[in-house]
Design brief:
Layout: H1 3-14, E1 18-20, E2 32-34, H2 36-54, E3 60-62, H3 72-76, H4 79-82, E4 84-89, E5 96-98, H5 99-112, H6 116-131, H7 135-144, E6 161-164, E7 168-171, E8 179-182, H8 188-192, H9 195-201, E9 208-217, E10 232-242, H10 247-264, E11 272-276, E12 286-294, E13 297-308, H11 310-319, E14 325-327, E15 332-334, E16 337-344, H12 345-356, E17 357-362, E18 365-370, E19 381-385, H13 392-403, E20 409-411, H14 417-427, E21 431-435, H15 437-442, E22 444-449, E23 455-459, H16 460-470
Parallel strand pairs: 3-9, 19-20, 19-21
Antiparallel strand pairs: 1-2, 4-5, 4-6, 7-8, 9-10, 10-16, 11-12, 12-13, 13-16, 14-15, 17-18, 21-22, 22-23
Helix pairs in contact: 2-12, 5-6, 6-7
Bound molecules: adenosine-5'-triphosphate.
Length: 473
């Protein structure tokens, strides 16, 4: 793993953002827990997404569907039959790999060596083999390309097998009655099966959207790159139902809207890239990803897909319940088409963390800080009395009381003021508010700004307004 990612992972653990799951038992691969500041950051990101979807758009409402769904859901969606990754094992190291990832890495190596054409040829060849479900051909391709296991250094590979990514479990207390159900691998299906419930009860008219935030589970074969690829993660998905024939206009519009959202979060334009899919999933008639330049390269953060009427039509077939909408404007019944925006909360978290992480040398001294946009920073302000006596702590507590109902505030009186500033830099607090002897005389404090370390004198009465303005998105 790359050096900068290593630093970020270490920082995330040391300063209360992300820990490996059940760490005292040496962790559980590809599962992570969020700490005191991590959960604040994640909640802020989720809230921001939720509010931009459901509040800024009159025609988008939310739902919260269960993780467990009727097993037929996953037959209708195609997940039982085709939510597979091709896997291959190295016989010497006994390590398991995703065959498509091995090929992608090889293609990337060709591209890095300046051979774009060969890279593309390889990807095309792989695409054709997977489409034809020619798994023996996939193995031959890996062997012919002399792809070696990074651990054993050999190309002694097993056959390629398809591996379904869904986790399953049993419901029912008696073994004979128990039936297999799945942990949802995406939140989208909870929206599709509730399409008519929501449309009728929230009295929505096409075009309209349904948004949801919730956990999803995938038994990923290769778990790597920290919280980029997890087995338990959170998705934020919005399905936008439109009149057939208008879907590509809406697709274009959502692609632009979502890209703007990422820029508004403070992600620089040059670190974002749009990747249009050439090979489309069976249900899509257009698809693209928004990619961010992670320390390990440009990778997908969000997908925007034009899913046609595939899901609703399939649910209509399997459930035998009409999934049609009557459009009063054109006096017609139809199954709406769907544009989907789908983003992982954890991947968004990782992008935000990578983008915020600054480790720089200032006048010969190393300085590390997290430059989060104040709207998503875990802690908005730290209130710091200069000393523990002379009534400064009491004054500082008055300020905490005035702000804590609207902002996440920290009070800290231990250690020197410089040390306390550094500590706040490390968790990305945008403002440090110092209470000193002058405060007792004129009710002013100093605000120290995280990014510039500059300080200014401000009236206590103005603090609320200043924070509110800085923390707006
Ligand atoms: P990938 O190609 O990276 O596996 P995908 O194309 O399968 O992703 P989608 O099924 O479109 O991803 O899921 C939508 C979003 O959910 C992704 O853009 C990503 O942000 C997030 N996501 C998907 N799988 C994971 C995972 N294993 N861990 C964390 N986030 C994930």
């Amino acid at each position: 793993e790359n050096a900068q990612l290593k630093d970020i992972i270490a920082h995330a653990k040391e300063y209360g953002f992300v820990y490996p799951s059940s760490e005292i038992y040496d962790g559980l691969q590809a599962v992570y827990d969020y700490g005191a500041y991590g959960v604040e950051l994640k909640n802020n990101l989720k809230r921001l997404w939720w509010e931009t979807m459901t509040r800024l758009n009159e025609n988008i409402v939310g739902i919260d569907a269960a993780i467990f769904m009727h097993p037929t859901t996953w037959k209708a969606s195609g997940h039982v039959d085709s939510f597979n990754d091709p896997m291959i094992d190295n016989k010497d190291s006994k390590k398991r790999y995703r065959a498509d990832v091995l090929i992608e890495d090889k293609a990337a190596a060709y591209e890095n060596a300046g051979d774009k054409e060969r890279a593309q040829e390889l990807l095309n060849a792989m695409g054709r083999l997977l489409e034809a479900e020619d798994l023996a051909g996939v193995r031959d391709l890996i062997v012919n390309e002399a792809i070696k296991c990074p651990i054993s250094g050999t190309s002694n590979w097993t056959d390629v097998r398809q591996f379904n990514l869904m986790f399953s479990t049993q419901v029912g207390s008696v073994a004979e009655d128990a039936s297999t159900i799945y942990l949802r691998p995406e939140t989208a299906q909870g929206i599709f099966v509730n399409f008519l419930n929501v449309q009728k009860t929230a009295r929505m008219k096409v075009p309209f959207g349904i948004a949801q935030i919730g956990k999803a589970f995938r038994n990923e074969i290769v778990a790597r790159q920290f919280i980029f690829r997890m087995r338990e993660f959170e998705q934020m998905e919005m399905q936008f139902f439109v009149r057939p024939g208008t879907e590509l206009d809406w697709y274009k519009q959502w692609a632009e809207t979502r890209m703007k959202w990422h820029k508004a979060l403070g992600i620089p334009e040059e670190k974002l890239r749009r990747h249009d899919h050439e090979k489309l999933a069976h249900y899509a008639n257009a698809a693209m990803d928004i990619e961010y330049q992670f320390p390990f390269g440009f990778k997908e953060v969000e997908g925007i897909h034009s899913r046609t009427d595939f899901d609703l039509k399939s649910h209509q077939e399997f459930s035998k319940k009409k999934q049609q909408y009557f459009d009063p404007e054109i006096n017609q019944n139809y199954i709406p088409y769907v544009i989907e925006t789908s983003i992982g909360a954890d991947r968004l978290f990782l992008m935000t963390l990578c983008n915020a992480y600054v480790d720089e040398e200032v006048e010969g001294k190393q300085r590390t800080y997290l430059k989060f946009h104040p709207a998503i920073a875990p802690v908005k302000a730290a209130i710091l009395p200069l000393t523990k006596k002379d009534g400064l702590p009491e004054k500082a507590h008055e300020i905490v009381e005035a702000l804590k109902y609207d902002f996440n505030i920290i009070y800290e009186e231990a250690a020197s003021i410089g040390k306390r500033y550094t500590r706040q830099d490390l968790i990305g607090t945008p403002f440090c508010i110092a209470v000193d002897h002058q405060t007792l005389e004129d009710n002013t404090v100093t605000i120290r700004h995280r990014d510039t370390t500059e300080q200014e004198r401000v009236a206590i009465a103005d603090l609320h307004g200043r924070l509110a303005e800085a923390c707006s998105f």
